[in-house]
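Let's sit down with a protein and look at its sequence and fold side by side. Once you have written the record down, we can walk along the chain together.
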Amino acid sequence: MHVIRNLASAIAMLAAASASAQVTDEDLAAKATDPTASLMSFQLNDWYTASLHDAGGTVNQVVVRSAIPFEALGHANIFRITLPAFTNTPTGRTGIGDTTVFNLTVVNESWGRWGVGVAGSIPTARDGLGFDKWTAGPALGFVNSSNKRVNWGLFTQTFFSFAGDDDAPDVGIINLQPIASYQLGGGRSLSLGNSAFIYDTEHSRWASLLVGLNYGQVVTWSGHKWRPNFEVDYDFRDTRGNQQWVIRAGIVLLLPR
């Protein structure tokens, strides 16, 4: 009886600990829109460029992305990999694009978190669908989460070519991603999504000024947490051939630890 009582007590303690560590839908909604959050996720997206500036045609990509948190040298890290596949382009070329990756070492603070790491791309693309170059550069980001309903911050990735096809143009890209999300309650949130301001250092110009609005809701299905989401973006950089209106739809599997 003594052993049974001890076992029952241990089970009760584990259950209580599990309940106290339970992540709410609101927490998951905030982390799902934060690239510096230590949240494992797997997502499948469809990104449709409905129009181009001063050009005809459309573009469609199926994008697979995974974020994997891990511990290294006593610090939390986030590794993310993104692989696009072009199913439609104005030129008719289809196939996979360049694979992009980043690893961020994250430091938690009383006001939120910040992180520093490295970003890069691997030339996995079919001819005409990528840079044909290996790229790498520093990555830096921070998010202020002191207000539970509003998160804001900035995430920067840089991509500078260092190897690859000698005939391909050199690459120099600074990608500034503003972060802002508002929790509507019930696991619902509005965020800036894939908004990004991209500066081309090789040509000393802004290549893209993309602003978007993303709506998503955390739901429970088949014993797991998911975040279906929908987004509309507009690129204010009116350069011929630039994407103009972009419509995105995706589903994210969230795996809190």
Residues 172 and 201 are 5 Å apart (CA to CA). The radius of gyration is 21 Å. The first strand starts at residue 40 and ends at 52. The longest helix spans residues 2-20.
